[in-house]
Amino acid sequence: MSNEENTDLLLGLGLSLNQARIYLAILKLEKTTVGQVAQFSKVRREDVYRIMPSLEKMGLIEKLMGKPAVFRATPISDALSFLVAEEKAKSDDRLKGMRTRVQKLSLKDWKQPILGEDSIYILIAEKKAILAKTSELIRNSKKRSR
């Protein structure tokens, strides 16, 4: 696989472009310094210094103490598991927030006009909207039959 393909795959896992380039450089170089990473990844040295702590926090790289500091990548299977777990946690948080908002909105008393006889036909273009309208019609028919 080419370096560009690997970069694209890492972008799909939530890394920024420079994070992906730096991580791939460290993977290829094994134990390396910031200067070597900057040269190999073609990311400015200042940016490498700025991004390294975020990669450490994600669990993608480890900093080996010494002068100069040396970095190495964590095993790729562990790193990918960390990325997936992090994205799952973010997704769970977003869903929890959305459910809370839906609950708050559904508690409000929404005034919606009742369709008159002049509104016999409705043009619905999207599949989701069709399903929502069908559900609404079924609910309304159950209410009327009671």
Précis, in short:
The chain has six helices and two strands; from the N terminus they run H-H-H-H-E-E-H-H. The protein has 146 residues and is mostly helical. Strands 1-2 form a two-stranded antiparallel ribbon.
Describe the structure.
This protein has 146 residues and is mostly helical. 65% of the residues lie in helices and 5% in strands. It contains six helices and two strands. It has helices at 3-11, 17-29, 34-41, 45-58, 76-107, 127-145; strands at residues 61-64, 70-73. Strands 1-2 form a two-stranded antiparallel sheet. A hairpin with a 5-residue loop joins strand 1 and strand 2. Helix 1 crosses helix 2, helix 2 packs across helix 3 (34-41) and helix 2 crosses helix 4. It is elongated, with a radius of gyration of 26 Å. The model has no long low-confidence stretch (mean pLDDT 86).
